[in-house]
Amino acid sequence: MVYARPFRRAVWGLAVATMFFALGCDSPAGPGHPYMGIAELFPADGAVDQDLNINLRWTIETDTVMAAPSHYRVFLGTQTPLPLVMDSLTENSFMPGTLAPKTVYAWRVEAYRDTVIIASTPTMRFTTGREFTYPLAVGLRWIYWHETYSYTADGQPNPVYRDTGRATVGIVGFTTIWDYIDAYDFYIMEQVGAEYHTCHFYLNNIEDGLYTLDYTGTSLIAPRLVVEHSGKRFLFAGRVFDSPDQLFSALRGEMVYAAKRPGPTPEGYSPTISYAYPLRLGHQWTYRDHTDEGYPFRIDKKVIRREQVSTQAGVFDCLVIQWFWDIDDDGMWESGIDGYDYLAPQGLIKREFYVAKVGTQPYDNPEEIVYYDFFDGYTLTAHGRGWEHPDGVTPGTTIPAPPGRR
User: Fold this and answer.
1) Is beta strand 47-50 parallel, antiparallel or unpaired with respect to 84-89?
2) Alpha carbons 238 and 235: distance in angstroms, whole number
3) Domain ranges for the chain
4) CA separation for the pair 61, 207 (Å, rounded)
């Protein structure tokens, strides 16, 4: 009887401690340390200058006694108590979406086997940076309104040419190309009227930038088969194009010839840096060079300013990236071509190209040339996860222009 009371206290204390830790409180080993089976946490406690499109990840340590968890719960936010942002997650990573810049976030993970919590992390904190990289995660998708038209000096559309439609861009997979380079598979489907075209682009963030590594298929965004829209051919900078789509495809620096995929090596094709990091004001880089495998001229890009952009998809804090072309290889940037990307942590928000004095020439009358100015632009109308069209559009459906568009 003398030892009964201390023994009961010890058992009671052990039970309280077990319950205390099971509820997910901080580990006595200290913030950021592996706790009850969850390890290799990223970002670690106290991490700074983290990407606004961060991918939270961890590993689970199991043994013969503790079976692997069936799912996880992720808590993330700036409030107390921490909000639950993902329940019943079966993967060891979670991309919460674009976070706010220069903000301290707290997060933790709980592991469950069925309805029983079997492991938890301490509450950890990290600080986001000011700059960002392009968001990459399987399941992300962007929908754009696309229009191409000729216009007059006052910017009004001219009826000699006009095309409108919708482009849907989605990350549908993660793969390996050339047997050794990891890449995200961007599936692109573009509609003009009742006509659909598709292709795949393969991109990844690799150290100093977002690289376009390869592509397959044809689309209006990538080089495609010749499609004659108006019985005319289009002349610009000494080159002949069968449609404005081909002209703007060339100006966007897209591959002229189909790259090899799959294949053992990237021989015959030079990957391009679509966006060079860090994305800061004044940063300039060469996107395409005339020395690239068969590419005919040089293209540079430069971050020139920040601008708030409002679209049907929302309001975005963008970096404005200007394009520059040296088509005749004289070391001088061309006049009469203007191009701008509006890039936000959520991805590409808007792209606009303006080209002056494009010659239009009927196929049946090569002596007749009339010059027009042309516009080509993509504007974001929706973004998020999943592949469903938010407005229920199905193939063959005519898509009206977003409100406020011509």
Assistant:
1) unpaired
2) 7
3) 4-128, 140-385
4) 30
b/e string for 312-340 if b means 16 or more Cβ within 10 A? Answer: ebeebebbbbbbbbbbeeeeeeeeebbbb
Pick the CATH number of 4-128 from 2.40.400.10, 2.60.40.10, 3.40.50.10860, 3.40.50.300: 2.60.40.10
List the chain residues with pLDDT less than 50: 1-35, 64, 219-229, 256-265, 388-406
pLDDT in the model for residue 217: 65
Cα–Cα distance list, 335 to 48, 150, 153, 357 (Å): 43, 18, 16, 11
Instruction: Note if the bond before 271 is cis, omega within 30 degrees.
Output: no
Predicted local distance difference test score (pLDDT) of residue 244? 84
pLDDT of residue 186: 93
Say how many CA atoms lie within 13 Å of 65 toward its Cβ.
3
- The full DSSP string for 114-150 is TTEEEEEPPPEEEEE-S-------TTEEEEEEEEEEE
pLDDT (0 to 100) of residue 370: 83
Residue with tokens 């793969």: 175
Model pTM?
0.71
Task: Give the per-residue pLDDT at 269.
Answer: 60
User: In 3-state terms, what secondary structure has residue 241?
Assistant: strand
SS3 for 65-122, per residue? CCCCCCEEEEEEECCCCCCEEEEEECCCEECCCCCCCCCEEEEEEEEEECCEEEEECC
Which has the closest alpha carbon to 175: 213, 222, 209, 128? Answer: 213
Q: In 3-state terms, what secondary structure has residue 160?
A: strand
Q: In whole angstroms, what is the distance from residue 345 CA to residue 96 CA?
A: 13
Pairing state of beta strands 272-276 and 239-241? unpaired
Residue pLDDT, tens place only, 43-94: 999 999 898 888 899 988 766 455 678 899 999 999 989 999 999 899 888 9
pLDDT for 222-275, tens place per residue?
444 444 445 778 888 888 888 888 888 888 887 544 443 434 445 556 678 999
DSSP symbol at 279: -
Count the residues in the chain. 406
Rounded to whole angstroms, the Cα distance separating 323 from 278 reads 17
Helix (H) or strand (E) holding 159: strand 157-177
- 391, 392, 396, 402 alpha-carbon torsion, rounded to 10°: 0
Alpha helix positions (H), 195-261: 244-251
